[in-house]
Amino acid sequence: MQRHGAAVAVTAERDVEDRLQRALHENIVLKLQKNDLEEKLKKLQTQFRRLVADWRRAQGGSGFSRGSTILRPCCAPSPWAMEPSARPHSAAEADSRGAPAAPSLGGLLPPLNPNQSSQTACGASSTTAKTWKRQESPPGTTGVAAGASEAELAACKAALAHAQLELQQLRSSALAAIQARATTPLALKNVTTMPADASAAILEASKQEAAQLRSQLQKIREELNASVLAQQQLRVQSNQAMQGMQQQLETQYRASIDTLTREKQELILKVRLAEAEKQAKSSVEASSPDPMEMATLHGEVHRKVSEVALLNSHLQYAQGQVETLKGECNRLIEELKEAHAAHADTKRALFTLEHEAASLRTQCRSMTEVELALQRKTEECSNTEQELLKLAGSLQTCQRETEAAVRLEFQSRLTEVQEMRDTAERERREVERRLLSSQHDLAELRRRLENTQGDLQLYHGEVAKLEKEKSAISAQIALAGHTAAAVAAAGADLTDEDVHRALAVAAIKKRGSRTQKREAEMGLGGAGTVDGDAAAAAGAAPAKEARDALDLFEALAWDGDWEQGQMREALATAAMDLELAQTRCQQMAEQVEQSREMLRKVSDERDTLLEESIALRGRVMHVQTIFAKQQLQAYRAAATASGLGTEGLISFSIRGLQSQEAAMCRSLGIANLKAPVSFFFTLDGLADYEAMMGPTLRALDDVVDVRFQYEGLAKDAVTLATIEETVFCFQLHCAAGETSRLVAMAELPGAALLNAREVPVEDTLPLIDGEGQTVGSILVEFCCARLVLPILLGAPLSDPRAGATTFTLSAQEIKSAMVALRTVCYLRIQVFRAEGLAGSLEGGTAPQPYVFYTATSPLGALNCVRDTVVHPSSRIFTTDPVFDVVPVDHRVIVDPALIRFVAFGVVSFVLFDERATNVQANIGVVEVALRPLLNSPHAIIRVTERLHPQGTLSVGLSWVSGV
């Protein structure tokens, strides 16, 4: 019976599928017919427009006279004449426009097709009628909705046929009028004299007919649209009814099948019981039974036989019910087939959706490939960021080493240059001193030379005087009559040169003792007369005096030559010393110039290194800015994340345990891995939290799912540095009664947690026993959720989920704020000072701080605040910096976007240390809301906010209004 029921179900499904396919085909045919009807309606509208244009042209042609005079009607032009149809609809119209001089052909109404005869309208109407007749046979399985649509389509067809007949009558009447005018040329004269009332009546009649045709076409369109809408509604209703019937039939069919299955099982059990009793009866008969027992058994057999007969009757009744249900099912299947016939559009839509689903799957596969490529690119970007961080660290190390080496080299070179400069200065001063002394000596020598030259000239003058005196004395001696002997004795050993010298010496001596001689002569003037012996003694005395004077002159001459030679030698030596000093000065000047050149090169190298250092600091600052923005984005992403009610959560989950059989069995003291043993895991990590213990497991092959969580990290003020320095230790303990012993342990560094922000990460950790051997491994899944925001900021940002009214402004509020802030041109942001900052991470020394700030809005509005870096007024190492006095003005344009940005935006200030090797590390973060600035253009925000982990920051925000 089950097989028969399954076969009936399969047959019913096949019939349903066949009927659905047929209904689909019929639906396609109906849609094609509908498209044909729409195309024919469009053609009919085009023909109607052409007919109206032709009619207007024929009416206009009736106003032409033979003399080509135009009679303009007095009435207003037809609305159909206002259509911008400047293109002729046929070749005849083009000919009539191109040749207006042919009055006999100007009034003819051209046909719609130049190859069409005058019977075109009749042929078109007959063709249309045939088409309507061909389309009037709808499929018989469309049901009530199909009958309604047939009636509506029939009404539409009748309306269209009526409109076509009216158009045909209008065209035939127009042709008859034109032919009558052509056959009777005298009628043209009567037309020219036609009164204006007749032409106005004709135009009015044509307008009315056109309006009637327009209204009929509009009605036809509305009826078609209404029929299509009604058909769609009926299809939807029939689909819903069919689905409900199908579900009901399936429920009934399943219930009946279950009932029959239960009855069949009961009958099988009863038959088995009867067979068992029969076997027992036969076994009893084979032995020597008791007559009483036999009678009892006979009674039981009769009772069982009657029960079997009753069961057979029940079975027949059940079979009859099954047949009845089968007939009912057949009837319901037939009804279901009929319902499926009305489900053609739904099936078609289903096929279309399946096709779209297949295309979407293809797109999803391509999107998966794109996501994989994006993930690879993201990994590459993260690797690049890590390399950039390493490069930044190496660059900072290289910068520090280079600066230290440059400073040392510069100091050594500067010391050498200073020593050389001091030595050169000392030598220069010594040379200058010696040169001055030489100059003094030369001046003294020149003075003495001038004195000697003056004395020499004086000597020459005195010699000349002595010669004159000698000649005078010689003349006196000759006149006095001295004897020859006296003369010979007086001048035997003297020559003329000796005489001259003696006279010169005498003149010199006389010059000094003239006064004494005069006094002596005056004292001797009163003596007695001089005799001849006295005259001889007087002649011998001058000779002796002359010799003494000559010796004195030679001594004086020798002393002057020797002194002059000594002076010349000293002068030559001084000149040589001066030349040597000049050479030495020149050499020292060259050395000084070389030292200056070297110093200039060192200065250039120092400037180059300083510029490179500044560029590296700028790059590091840029990297810090990028990481700061990434951190702020991570903060806001964590703030807007859903699904968590706590701020700051670290979770660990041990998903699996893999054991090395020999080592693990030895450590636990069991025979094999399937032996029962009690063990549990513990987690020891953060210092402020106690060790956590997991549930007890009873065997190594059990399913391992142990979870540990650290909650409320924001409340306990756990920092990133604490997490990075913490090592999370997973310990495997073996339970033995009320005690336990440590078997193995695995460690996870805290730095690995920073790679699992908001996304779970799995890792395999080895288990190490007390002897340092690996006994197995555990699969750990860990995740950090909403961790960075409470740790670094100390308070969550504004949450858009707090309420829709929190992040919305009414139109009146926006308008009033725009009116109040209409004179605002700039947003001024100023950082004043910071106090009590944390020390530098390198050795705990004072930091060299600077501030980076940016602005964001949870609504993603346009940002009017550009990213800015503010340095202290003096870049010194301090924990209480005072920043630049000059504020920074940011240009704003007052519009609704600015109002929304100021209403919900915040400015984030991040303090960095220029000496920090870790460019991601900061020494403080704070956020200031812009909402108070909406009150007035004169509103000022001057706050001192608390930084994390320590310190305060004073900032100011205000508007700057224009003139």
Automatic annotation (TrEMBL):
- Cited InterPro entries: C2_domain_sf (IPR035892), Lamin_tail_domain (IPR052877)
Gene Ontology CC? lamin filament
Has UniProt tagged this entry with the keyword Coiled coil?
A: yes
Instruction: List where this protein forms a coiled coil.
Output: 20-54, 203-230, 315-342, 367-469, 578-612
Which intervals carry biased composition (Low complexity)? 98-119
Instruction: Cite the Gene3D superfamilies for this sequence.
Output: C2 domain (2.60.40.150)
Where is the segment annotated Disordered? 81-146
Polar residues bias located where?
120-130
UniProt keywords (A-Z) are: Coiled coil
Single GO MF annotation: structural constituent of chromatin
Q: Does the keyword Endoplasmic reticulum apply?
A: no
Q: What is this protein called?
A: RPGR-interacting protein 1 first C2 domain-containing protein
